[in-house]
Design goal:
Number of helices of chain A: 0
Order of helices and strands of chain B: EEEEEEEEEEE
Helix content of chain A: under 10%
Oligomer: heterodimer
Radius of gyration of chain A: 13 Å
Number of strands of chain A: 11
Structural class of chain B: mainly beta
Amino acid sequence: RKEVEQDPGPFNVPEGATVAFNCTYSNSASQSFFWYRQDCRKEPKLLMSVYSSGNEDGRFTAQLNRASQYISLLIRDSKLSDSATYLCVVNGPDSWGKLQFGAGTQVVVTP
Amino acid sequence: DTAVSQTPKYLVTQMGNDKSIKCEQNLGHDTMYWYKQDSKKFLKIMFSYNNKELIINETVPNRFSPKSPDKAHLNLHINSLELGDSAVYFCASSQDLAGFTDTQYFGPGTRLTVL
């Protein structure tokens, strides 16, 4: 079983709509959670960290469910520029900077 | 002003050759990493250095040898290249080793194609 699993998509979203997707992780002792964004043929960039109580950053909302071992990302009022692959990233208790990446969920925002 | 830079951006070479990829960061970070992203898009850590000291060494063939001449540079040398080495190699850096909250900043990647 993979450490971090994501629905690869693509999620085709009309501009202005809301899209949400999850990621599951296998290590119940994982401590840190992040969403990174990767544009086509570019490097990953941190989108946001995910906190236990959930957190928002503008149109982006991240949630953590430790009991069910998943994190979620919701994008409101989608923009064309939100088209990208969103990588779920987990950092475990025995790792020193050893991030575990999911394969990503592709989001395509259409006009 | 690029924070993490890698050279070359593209590398096409024959099986059996030896090649190097260079990485430099100007963020003043103590920790640098090499990741491999294969055709299935999984990013996997290969190595991590903290202040020039090897900290993480995942199960990587010993044909891959990282070298950190100083904490701003982390190079990757690959001997006897194989077809399966074709991938995008990303360098990254973070402020320190803890990694629990530190953002990792990635370089633009080196797309290696082995023919």
